[in-house]
Specification:
Blueprint: H1 2-17, H2 38-50, E1 53-57, H3 67-78, E2 87-90, H4 95-105, E3 112-115, E4 118-121, H5 123-132, H6 134-140
Parallel strand pairs: 1-2
Antiparallel strand pairs: 1-3, 3-4
Length: 156
Amino acid sequence: MASSLSFALRRVVHTAANRAPISRFAPQTLSCFRYISDDARANLDKLVTDNNLVVFMKGTPDAPQCGFSRTVCIILEMHGIKPSQLTTRDVLSDPDLRQDIKEYSEWPTVPQVYVNGEFIGGCDIMLQMHQSGEIVEALKAIGHESTFTGSGEDDS
């Protein structure tokens, strides 16, 4: 009995030790936390406050690496934001950034959009804002007049 318990315990510990960091949002019995460093937090603070519109995404606006990141880029393009006007960071090229941004925002998924230093949300929130028209007001706050007409064509 003791040896089977010992084997089971070793198996659980071995499995947990070989996992990537577990999100603090996921239910679990064994948990490990990775807290963002003060330097990383300061760098992210500077990035999102120094730029009007920041998108943390998988890939780049020209080559998004997931459908959600692509959708955010499409929504912004529909409102006249060109990829060259975006400040973006590819979380796939930097595993630390990928984890840090989730802890920074306390939001478990990527993409993440910041407007005027404020975390707006991910793909789902951007889609809701587009559908409700709220995105037009958010873009006005950064001095951008949306070109979206609702007809699928832009005004330019």
